[in-house]
Amino acid sequence: KQKAWITAHVHMFEFFGGVAKILVSDNGTTAVNHQQSDWYTTSLNTTYHEMAEHYGTAIIPARVRKPKDKPNAEGSVGNISTWITAALRNEQFFSLAELNAAIRKKLDAFNTNTFQKKEGSRRSLFLGEELPLLAPLPATRFELSDWKTATVQFNYHIAVDKMYYSV
Asked: How high is the pLDDT of residue 66?
């Protein structure tokens, strides 16, 4: 759902402590309005576009059937998911907060592990090369909005989510 998609982006920006100048997203319906897009030009969904403007970033959806547009990210997601899931598979959690704390602990350990074939770790690479390039976060967090199309009734009201508003 789009609400979860936007919320994940907001949490991602806050986790990184900044905003990348360009994002390459999936070409899914939560990001792209396929009815207004064609093969060569994509049109972002209104809310996703508003979020990009709020954070001052450009969003370029990956091309359809072009897996080379984002191969490194896909591989890392698979590695992290497998590593964290395997580490936590025998533990029992009684709240979402407890589970999130355990995941955060494992994620921090994953990011501080040293690389096998080069110097440093994911965390040191991020702090040294990527964090200085991020734009600062805006003063306020993005607030999700819903866009609806409503027809004005004969009594000069519109209905949105079973609530009536005069116009």
From this structure: 64
The model's confidence at residue 83, banded by pLDDT at 50, 70 and 90, is: confident
Tokens 């355990």 -> residue:
102
Over range 96-100, report the average pLDDT: 93
Find residue 129's DSSP bridge partners.
none
Cβ atoms of 36 and 79 closer than 8 Å: no
Taking the mean position of all CA atoms in its chain, how far away is CA 126?
18
Q: Whole-structure pTM over 0.85, yes or no?
A: no
d(CA 85, CA 135): 32
Tell me how far CA of residue 29 lies from CA of 6, 12, 37, 46, 126, in angstroms.
13, 20, 11, 12, 30
pLDDT at 11: 93
Tell me how long the chain is. 167
SS3 137: coil
Helices (H), the chain: 2-16, 46-55, 71-88, 96-112, 122-125
Please compute, for residue 117, the number of CA atoms within 13 A of its CA located in the half-sphere on the CB side. 0
